[in-house]
Amino acid sequence: MRCFLAVDLPDSLAAGVAAVQDRLSDADGLRFTDPESAHVTLKFLGEVSPDRVGAVEDAVESAVEAAGVGPFDASVGGLGVFPSLDYIRVVWVGVDDGAAELTRLHEAIERETTALGFDPEDHEFTPHVTLARMDDARGKVLVRRVVGGESPTVGSFRVREVRLKKSDLGPDGPEYETVARVSL
């Protein structure tokens, strides 16, 4: 199964995510994510066989302990893109408060999961929630204008756990299911 480790945003922030997406709704070439499934990815694992789920869960428990991160508050706001404004592939809203804790969790999870044989990340970690993917550049000018000119606030929430999520790709986009939870 295709898996990743994440912090889910609560349902109460879905409307805020959707409101930010609405600011980009006239940009052609964007494929929006489901606001109800909004999350901060800490580590993409790829294929994980069901018999390795326990080992991944143990690794995340060790990572949480090593990171020294207990429950914390995070705020979501501001806009950005990957990899750059010249070549936009992903439009995202960032994490302000809580970014340091998420980064510590990511770094510890990265160490533990690469020790299990998962591929290391090939880019710097930026705590974010993906709003949309840009399939083509038709809406690039509008995206640049919104990202450069606005700094919306989605809201704040309490981070209490890291989740191992399964992702099933379907015709209407990915569907996520929580496979395991590790409390902070």
What is this structure's SSE topology?
Blueprint lengths: L1 E7 L5 H9 L7 E3 L6 E9 L5 H15 L4 E12 L4 E8 L3 H17 L12 E7 L5 H10 L3 E7 L1 E10 L2 E11 L1
Antiparallel strand pairs: 1-3, 1-8, 2-6, 4-5, 4-7, 5-6, 8-9
Helix pairs in contact: 2-3
Structure description:
This protein is α+β, with helices and mostly antiparallel strands. The protein has one domain: Cyclic phosphodiesterase (Cyclic Phosphodiesterase, Chain: A, Alpha-Beta Complex), CATH 3.90.1140. Helix content is 28%, strand content 40%. It is built from four helices and nine strands, in the order E-H-E-E-H-E-E-H-E-H-E-E-E. The protein has a five-stranded antiparallel sheet with strand order 2-6-5-4-7. Strands 3-1-8-9 form a four-stranded antiparallel sheet. Strand 4 (72-83) and strand 5 (88-95) form a beta hairpin. Helix 2 (53-67) crosses helix 3 (99-115).
Give the C-alpha Rg.
16 Å
Proportion of strand residues? 35-45%
Main-sheet strand order equals: 2-6-5-4-7
Distance between the termini: 25 Å
What CATH architecture label applies? Alpha-Beta Complex
Tell me the number of structural domains. 1
CATH class group: Alpha Beta
How would you describe the shape?
globular
Low-confidence stretches: none
- Say how many strands there are: 9
What structural category characterises the helix and strand content? alpha+beta
Helix content: 25-40%
What is the typical, i.e. mean, pLDDT?
A: 95
* Biggest sheet record: 5 strands, antiparallel
From the 3D structure, determine the CATH topology.
Answer: Cyclic Phosphodiesterase, Chain: A
Pfam family, one: 2_5_RNA_ligase2
GO molecular function, one term: ligase activity
Motif (HXTX 1): 39-42
EC number: 3.1.4.58
